[in-house]
Amino acid sequence: MPISNSGIAGAPLQIDEKPELKEVVMGLHWDPSEDDVNVHPENLDALCVLFDQEQQIVETIHPGNPRSTNGSVVHTGDSRTGASKWDDERIFVFLEALPANVTTLVFIVASATGNPIREARGASCHISDHATEYQWVNMELTTLDTQTTYCVATLSRSPTGWEIASTAQDINREHEAQSAALAALRQFEFARSHELVRAAGIKPE
């Protein structure tokens, strides 16, 4: 099945039927600014932080690092304006292909501009089954307070398989994941800002 930001026609499920957690997609969407999109448009980023059983960060997947080492977690690419008809950014996770040392995944939305996430028009996020589009989590991010980063959900490996929770169960782990995500994003955004400056032909003084 292809990996993209477009909608996927999944197989219908019966009432109360839930798919097994095998292939998961995090979808992030927001609408373009009503103002001139070239003047400080809202910009959100989707991230996935991988932890081992010691709660140490294994990898952080985000627009600047779109693919995990073994390809089991894939980010579809950076959106800077929220102009897509469907999800603007997606992260696909193939759980059966994850390295054995990865025991927890934390899904995070972050504001690349530093503005509260709720200020992005129509901002929403979902965690869904790749094949059927069954949604375990569906959040309207415009209802948040003043957060600039937000933990949407966690996936945890158990003896019987993977389990999902709509919020981080360990507040320390959530903070650690958000700190790692922000550090990675700052590096990415810094590099991207320099790329835009060079493209505009602006030379530093």
Structural features, described:
With 205 residues, this protein is α+β, with helices and mostly antiparallel strands. It has one helix at residues 171-199, and strands spanning 23-29, 44-52, 57-61, 73-75, 89-94, 102-111, 124-129, 135-140, 149-158, 161-165. The radius of gyration is 17 Å and the shape is globular. The protein starts with 22 loop residues before the first strand and ends in a 6-residue tail after the last helix.
Proportion in β-strands: 25-35%
The largest sheet has its strands arranged as 4-5-1-7-8
Evaluate the radius of gyration. Answer: 17 Å
* Secondary structure tally: strands: 10
**Average predicted local confidence, pLDDT:** 79
End-to-end gap: 49 Å
Tell me the series of helices and strands, N- to C-terminal: EEEEEEEEEEH
List low-confidence stretches: 6-15, 194-205
Helix content: 10-25%
- Oligomer state of the chains in this structure: single chain
Number of helical stretches of at least 4 residues: 1
Shape: globular
User: Major sheet, described briefly?
Assistant: 5 strands, antiparallel
SS-derived structural category: alpha+beta
